[in-house]
Amino acid sequence: MTTNAHHEKKRLENPPAAFKVKIQRREREGAAAHWETFEIPYRRNLNVISVLMDIRKNPVTVEGKQTTPPVWDMSCLEQVCGICTMVIDSRVRQSCSALIDDLLLASGTDTVTLEPMSKFPNVRDLKVDRSKMFDHLKQVNAWIELDGTYNLGPGPHIPNEVAQERYAFSRCMTCGCCLDACPQYGDGNYIGPQAIAQARLFNMHPTGKITEEDRLNGLMGEDGITNCGNAQNCIEVCPMSIPLTKAIYETNRDITVDALFGWLKK
Amino acid sequence: MAKTGLKIAIVGGGLAGLAAAMKIAEAGHDVDLISVVPVKRSHSVCAQGGINGAVNTKGEGDSPAKHLDDTVYGGDFLANQPPVKRMTDMAPEIIYLFDRMGVPFSRTKEGLMDFRRFGGTLHHRTAFAGASTGQQLLYALDEQVRKWEVAGKVTKYEGWEMLSLVLDNHQVCRGLIAMNLQDLQLKAFSADAVIMATGGPGLIFGKSTNSMTCTGSATSVCYQQGARYANGEFIQVHPTSIPGEDKLRLMSESARGEGGKVWVPRDPKDARAPRDIPETERWYFLEEKYPAYGNLVPRDIATREIFQVCLEGHGVNGENQVYLDLTHIPADVLTERLGAILEIYEMFVGDDPRYVPMRIFPGVHYSMGGLWVDFEQRTNIPGLFAAGECDYSIHGANRLGANSLVSCVYGGFVAAPSAIDYAKNIERGNTETNGIRDAELNRQQGINDSIVKSEGGENQYKLHEELGKVMTDNVTVVRYNDRLQATDDKLRELQDRFKKISINDSNLWATQAIPHARQLYNMLELARVITLGALNRNESRGAHYKPDFPERDDENFLKTTIAEYSAEAPVLSYEPVDVSLVEPRKRDYSSKKKG
Predict the structure, then answer these.
(1) How many H-runs (helices) and E-runs (strands) does chain A carry?
(2) Which CATH number fits domain A131-265: 1.20.272.10, 2.30.30.40, 1.10.1660.10, 1.10.1060.10?
(3) What's the pLDDT score for residue A3?
(4) Does the structure show a pLDDT above 60 at A167?
(5) Parts of chain B belonging to CATH 1.20.58.100
(6) How close A13 comes to chain B (CA, Å)?
(7) How far is residue B82's CA from residue B88's CA, in Å, rounded to a whole number?
(8) From CA B386, how far away is CA B379, in angstroms rounded?
(9) Which of A7, A11, A79 sits opposite B355 (nearest CB)?
(10) Which parts of B178-247 fold into alpha helices (H)?
(11) What residues pair up with B325 in beta bridges, in sequence order?
(12) CATH 3.90.700.10 residue ranges in chain B?
């Protein structure tokens, strides 16, 4: 190999002097949505967050109208807290890791479009309330049962392969991309991939396995795992590349086994 | 008679806050957990490399005593040693507990937890889950606390920001006032004790490796209400961060722990691609100067060396950047052990660090200073406790890598029983307290109202930018007294201009303008503590470096800086450091053997 070309970034070759950002605004939950467009001077290495910060400093639209600063959530800016998720050019993703160069290259236009996530209550502008995702985690008992937090020595020996497989599931930051993209999710009819994958995470652990049934029970109700329509959108949009469909498949298998042979345990 | 049914309020749901919440709930008491973000999104998720504990599974003869020695030596002897000893003694069982909670720690062939090397030690002492250990540890506590939430012992207030403490006429903490960030309603939380676990103040420096929630606002409030703030001038600048428009992204020390090498071309004008520069024409300046520790010298030293190399014009392409090179390590090994952080670099810079050396530069990362606490995590305000980065107790003048996660959990584990003990023995709130609570609620509402009405035309986000710039320029790696004085002048100017801000948001529903204005006010107060603490300390120790006073001066400054609030300026005093366990010696990482 003589060049490193494919390991280096593709950049916008003739960047424009300025580009536009079109933002869906909503004053509060239930209010009508409207659009506002802002013009931003182009700089290298801009991401959506730094653009929003620019607008917040000086909220004037392309028409020259003074407006309110857009409201959005942000925290880690390293794509590990999940809070800044929004819909960017029709794709749900974290806004911190959405680079303007990449967006303009992909769309071939001079405009970036920002909308709030669609499956959650829209608090204001780009901010949504995802608290029901944490309720889903309660429903599947997404934790290991401990006798107590006093010193009982180390946990069980675990092969590194299992640790690595669990690690992949454990990277879920509850961002909600999988739910926003899932055609089945919404109106409380389906718990969705994230909680199923978290149930899987704990069922794969030797200690977690002991209380596996509690987690499977949480997935057998009306909003349970059988509502998955296998559209596979979830793995397309998961920013952590979590094998969500594998979790759904394996958990479904465990539920079937439990249904067939569970009575033997009783 | 001992009371039952205690209520303890915890502010902050990162590692320290959740650790305390879990212990208090387990002891049968009730917790109100107040956090600006859903706790699972706290800044602890950003910790990457690992958690230290002398478990000694590698046959290296490691021990908690060596962990203690490395920690106080790395901290340039500014930490009180008894709590450090207690932490390093507790560290192995903390790691075991996380193992039992199901954290997917990387494993050895035998199926045991694996440990890697980190800065400031010669031992494999750092347990890790890929390169996102903080995320994994935080999630483990988040899960355990969720269980207690289901059990009704923990009530979460996520999306609430603490504004002030409720103090009674005897300056005893009886609870706090917090604001709902959606409807901006204020609420008084009564509590038998309050634990602060609000993390660091990185946003004071504008751009840092910290999350956008790390304003230090809540700790600043405690300071303004009478809590002592200790060692504020000790700010860790991490040697390896990725400069960005919006923040400086961390590149974990684990990259060097796994063999990453820092270098620049020997010829500063060498414009060749890094892989075309032969070994002999590369300057591995850390390995050259520090043969025993090499690239794993403590952070303050690595940061100054990188800073100096760039200052002297040796930075790559003449810019403020050096190479952090992993390309000699097989790509599949890198993916398994460092995948998460390499993805961050690739995502934000574009180059794949498995094949192209990273370009990095130091960035503000951590505050060793914080609320003063005694050895039981009690602040000087009765009823107020602190744990985690927001307290000053463990790291002295410089924190070693992978000691932050363990210190957060340790702080939470000590603060919880300490708060319970305190709460069992106090007089319960009475009508007098109720009146005081309402008065504080009204005072805070008044501040919000005055911010809404303020119309002087100053832009708060621009003020914040100016704050960040002056602090980064003058109060980070290299400090001069004239510039520190000028910085304090600038801070007072910013405080003046703050009175004239306009919030430019006519819609108060979920507005971020009022919370940010309040944070900015508090950041300015804390910035003065940091700056004047630095001005007053005429020596060099750990992260605090003054070229005009290049040596450590134990005679005058083997002391904790204490700042107490006054409207004029912070009042500074000094208290001796407890060095009863390890006798202070000169720090020297350059010799072939351990110093």
Answers:
(1) 10, 7
(2) 1.10.1060.10
(3) 45
(4) yes
(5) 433-553
(6) 15
(7) 10
(8) 7
(9) A7
(10) 217-224
(11) B261
(12) 240-363
- pLDDT computed for residue A44 by the predictor: 84
Q: Which are the contacts of A159, defined by CB distance < 8 A and separation ≥ 6? A: B107, B111
User: Residue A1: which pLDDT band, with cuts at 50, 70 and 90?
Assistant: very low
- Partners of B283 in beta bridges: B264
- Kindly report the pTM of this predicted structure: 0.96
* Closest chain A C-alpha to B283 CA, distance in angstroms: 22
- CA pair distance B120, B132, nearest whole angstrom: 20
Residue B164 is which amino acid? S
C-alpha span between B397 and B75 (Å, rounded): 5
Residue of A nearest to B149 (CA): A138
Long-range contacts of B304-312 (CB under 8 A, 24+ apart): B304/B477, B304/B478, B304/B545, B306/B239, B306/B262, B306/B360, B306/B361, B306/B362, B307/B362, B307/B477, B307/B478, B309/B264, B309/B285, B310/B361
CATH 3.10.20.30 describes domain A9-128? yes
- Tell me the mean pLDDT in the region B166-182: 96
Query: What confidence tens digit (pLDDT) does each residue in A30-49 have?
Result: 999 999 999 999 998 899 99
Predicted local distance difference test score (pLDDT) of residue B412: 98
Segment B255-265 shows an average pLDDT of 96
* For range B515-521, the mean pLDDT: 98
Give dist(CA B378, CA B231) in Å, integer: 16
Let me know if B299 is a catalytic residue: yes
CATH topology of domain B433-553: Methane Monooxygenase Hydroxylase; Chain G, domain 1 (1.20.58)
Give the number of residues written for chain B.
Answer: 595
Q: pLDDT digit string (tens) for A122-134?
A: 999 999 999 999 9
Q: Is B458 on the interface with A (CB under 8 A)?
A: no
Distance CA B141, CA B246 (A): 29
Average pLDDT over residues B296-307: 95
**Structure-block tokens of residue B543:** 């992260």
C-beta atoms of A78 and B144 within 8 A: no
Cβ–Cβ gap B96/A205 under 8 Å? no
The pair of structure tokens assigned to B169 is: 């006429």
Chain centroid to CA B377: 16
Round to whole Å and give the CA distance between A208 and B531.
50
The more confidently predicted of residues A3 and B503 is B503
Q: Do A97 and B129 touch (CB under 8 A)?
A: no
Q: What are the residue ranges of CATH 1.10.1060.10 in chain A? A: 131-265
Q: At the top level of CATH, which class does the domain B7-234+368-430 belong to?
A: alpha beta
Residue with tokens 């209400």: B225
B461-472 tens-digit pLDDT: 999 999 999 999
The pLDDT of B4-21, averaged and rounded, is: 95
Q: Is B587 exposed, middle or buried (0-12, 13-18, 19+ CB in 10 A)?
A: buried
Numbered ranges of CATH 3.10.20.30 in chain A: 9-128
Q: How far is A96 from chain B (nearest CA, A)?
A: 9
Other beta carbons within 10 angstroms of residue B481's beta carbon come to 14
Residue-averaged pLDDT of chain B: 95
Q: H or E stretch including B315?
A: none
Separation of alpha carbons B183 and B186, rounded Å: 9
Q: Which residues of A touch B45 (CB under 8 A)?
A: 76, 80-81, 173
Q: Selecting from 3.30.70.940, 3.90.700.10, 3.10.20.880, 3.20.20.370, what CATH number does the domain B240-363 have? A: 3.90.700.10
